[in-house]
Design brief:
The protein has 5 helices and 11 strands; from the N terminus they run αβββαβααβββββββα. By secondary structure, it is of the alpha/beta class. The protein has one domain. The strands form 2 sheets. Strands 1, 2, 3, 4, 5, 6, 9, 10 and 11 form a 9-stranded mixed beta sheet that branches. A two-stranded antiparallel ribbon has the order 7-8. A hairpin with a 4-residue loop joins β7 and β8. The longest helix has 23 residues. It is elongated and about 60 Å long. The termini are far apart.
Length: 260
C-alpha cells in the first residue's frame, strides 16, 4: 500500500516539475576576450531511494525507482547557477548555455571527461559546438556517485550509494525534532550529488573538477497528522528543495573549479 502511494505521489511530482519549466532567453552580444560554455547533464530524471536493511549483509539493499523528466527545468536551474557564479567570479566574460537532451550524453556522462572509444565522438561534437560559439572553456555538470550521508544533530546516517538528483527515504530511523523534542520515525532527504568540471575546449582536458553533495533532511510530524516520511514535504516543497540543492551544489562546484 505504501509503495503504491509513493509511486502515485512521485508521478504527481513529475507533473509538478513539468509545470515549473521556464523559457530562458539570451541576448546576443559581441564576444569578449573569453567565453565560457556550460552544459548540465543531471536533470533527465530523479530517483527515490528507500533504505532497506538486511541483517548480516554489507551489500546495498536499498530499493530504487527512477522517474524520467522530459522538461529541462532541473538542468536549467544548474545552468543558471553556473552562469551566475561565472559572472560573479569572472566579470566581463560571456557565458553560453548548451541545452542538449541527447540521451547518449546522459548515458555516457561518466565517460565524457576522458577520451575513450565510447566517448570520443561526443567529446569531439561538444568541442566543435563550443568552438562555434567562440568558447575556450567548458563547464560540465554531471552526476556524482558516492555514499549516502546525511547529517543529524549528533552523527551522520545513510546506507548504500546514491547519485544525481533525488530523494533518500528512510522510513524507520528513530529521529527527534530539535525544536520540540518530539520523537518521530523516518526522514526524507532531497539530495543533489553532482560533479562540476572545467575543461579546456582546445584539448578537452579537465582543468579542475569538484564533486559536491547537497541535501536537506525533513522529518514527519505526527502531531500535525504527517505520519509517513515521504509526506514530510508537500509536492511544492519537494520541488523547492530539489531546486535549492541543485543551485547550491552547482554554485559550490563552479566556485571551486574557477579558483585561481
Amino acid at each position: 500500500m505504501t509503495t503504491t502511494m509513493t509511486r502515485r505521489a512521485c508521478c504527481s511530482f513529475v507533473l509538478a516539475i513539468a509545470l515549473h519549466a521556464t523559457a530562458w532567453a539570451q541576448t546576443a552580444s559581441p564576444p569578449p576576450p573569453m567565453t565560457f560554455a556550460v552544459l548540465s547533464l543531471v536533470g533527465d530524471q530523479f530517483t527515490v531511494v528507500t533504505r532497506r536493511d538486511e541483517v548480516g549483509s554489507r551489500l546495498d539493499q536499498n530499493s530504487r525507482r527512477s522517474y524520467p523528466i522530459d522538461s529541462p527545468v532541473l538542468d536549467e536551474y544548474a545552468l543558471d547557477a553556473a552562469e551566475k557564479t561565472i559572472g560573479k567570479l569572472k566579470p566581463g566574460v560571456a557565458v553560453v548555455r548548451f541545452s542538449i537532451r541527447d540521451p547518449r550524453l546522459f548515458e555516457l556522462q561518466d565517460k565524457l571527461l576522458s577520451d575513450s572509444g565510447a566517448s570520443h565522438g561526443l567529446r569531439e561534437a561538444l568541442a566543435k559546438l563550443a568552438r562555434e560559439h567562440q568558447a575556450s572553456r567548458l563547464v560540465i555538470v554531471t552526476k556524482w556517485r558516492d555514499e549516502a550521508q546525511f547529517k543529524t544533530r549528533t552523527h551522520q546516517t545513510g546506507a548504500g550509494r546514491i547519485s544525481g538528483l533525488g530523494f533518500y527515504l528512510d522510513p524507520n530511523a528513530r529521529m527527534e525534532r530539535l525544536e520540540s523534542g518530539e520523537e518521530t520515525f523516518g526522514f526524507l532527504a532531497p539530495y543533489a550529488y553532482v560533479n562540476v568540471a572545467l575543461l579546456d575546449v582546445a584539448t578537452m582536458a579537465v582543468i579542475r573538477s569538484a564533486p559536491v553533495r547537497e541535501s536537506v533532511m525533513s522529518l514527519p510530524v505526527a502531531s500535525k497528522g504527517v505520519v509517513l516520511a515521504w509526506d514530510a514535504l508537500t509536492v511544492e516543497q519537494k520541488m523547492t528543495a530539489l531546486e535549492r540543492n541543485v543551485r547550491s551544489a552547482v554554485e559550490t562546484g563552479t566556485t571551486a573549479v574557477l579558483a585561481d
